[in-house]
Amino acid sequence: MIPFNKPFLVGKEIKYIEESVLSGKISGNGLFTKKCQTFFEEKFGFKKALLTTSCTDALEMTAMLMDIKPGDEVIVPSYTFVSSALAYVRQGAKIVFADSRTDHPGIDERSVEELITSKTKAIVVVHYAGVAVEMDIIMQIANKHSLLVVEDAAQSIDSYYNGRPLGSIGHFGVFSFHETKNIISGEGGLLTINDDRFIDRAEVIWEKGTNRSAFFKGEVNKYGWVDTGSSFLPSELIAAFLFAQLEQLKEIQDKRKLLWKTYYNGLIELENNNKLKLAVIPSGATNNAHMFYLVTKDLEQRDAIIKFLKNNNIHAVFHYLSLHKSSFHTKDLKDIQDLPNADLYTDCLVRLPMFYDLELDEVHEIINVINGFFK
Ligand SMILES: *Cc1c(COP(=O)(O)O)cnc(C)c1O
Fold first, then answer.
1. N or C terminus of the chain: which is more exposed, having fewer CB within 10 Å?
2. Does some domain include residue 363?
3. pTM of the model
4. Quick one: which of 170, 212, 211, 175 has its CA closest to 194?
């Protein structure tokens, strides 16, 4: 069976984990955490980078930093992972869902302004498959209405919008190093803060509501409980693993891009013959090869392709069930929003195997099976 995903080692992961243990400190905010954070700040120009134990945690930190309260509204795309909405629901926010674009699963930027009310606090965008949404338009709308913007860049490491790194454009960015992402540490995440107003408080929230970070920097002479927060920082073992992957970022990205291009060249004829659709990369956006997906003509065809691949020992998957129709969101609702493009991707999108150790031969085999399906 060719799996859908497989964790991988690319360099010094085990060596660095050993080093961190031998250094005598494996709790959080140590040497490897600092190395990772400095790497992100220097390579991508994030004003402040804080490692977290997951992207979900980083999203929860943004909810605390934005002081989301019951009655506030947050605009979130429906076609995304649960965490993009859940982080704000936990603080009592009402989620107003936005639709995807027709040509792309990312948020339809033209649909956002009409969702804004006097209660709206923030807009969350998701750079689906690492492909940028129209950030200039989103930031214009946000500035006009004094809203904060969170970029859910969970899938978007090393991807760009008009030359600017994703996660550096909104007030906040969040990344994931879950084992299914480009750069992995099992579970793991990153919060980026691009607006100075939030940096000091973010460090407090990160360290269980204490000013411990300021204490270690010598800015205060004792530390105590000063604000809300939680234990958001990962162990040094995680940071050590992550840093080894970051050192090989280019190698990882080059391999994934090669796999992506091979899939694309092998399947483009099916798109040209109107059998299926492949990803659209808008001008101004880059492709970080996070994901290779197909869009089928309907749900039956999608299920049939996944079954056909499975019978040929290839594990392909679908995802997301639109959040605006989830049982959790709809349980007290009278009206369900009408978001046809979110529903389209819920029904018709298939993800093909994509991971660092996938072989080109295996990609060719998958291409042959898919071409066989349409014969
Ligand atoms: C993976 C993912 C998350 C969640 O990341 P975790 O690190 O598992 O919490 C959130 N949003 C999107 C868009 C994702 O792809």
1. C
2. yes
3. 0.97
4. 170
Q: Kindly report the average pLDDT of the chain as a whole number.
A: 97
CB 175 within 8 A of CB 155: no
Q: Which amino acid appears at position 326 of this protein?
A: S
Instruction: Look at residues 38, 20, 8, 11 and name the one whose alpha carbon lies nearest to residue 238.
Output: 20
Task: Give me ligand 1 centre to Cα 211, in Å.
Answer: 28
Task: Enumerate residue ranges in the chain where pLDDT < 70.
Answer: none
Q: What is the pLDDT of residue 128?
A: 98
Pair 312, 209 in one domain: no
What is the position in ligand 1's atom list of the atom closest to the CA of 180?
1
| Neighbour order of strands in the sheet with 293-295 | 277-278, 293-295, 349-351
Residue 189 Cβ contacting ligand 1 at under 6 Å: yes
- In angstroms and rounded to an integer, the radius of gyration of the C-alpha atoms of the chain is 21
Domain-terminating residue out of 186, 221, 247:
247
Dist. CA 153 → ligand 1 center (Å): 8
- Do residues 259 and 136 share a domain? no
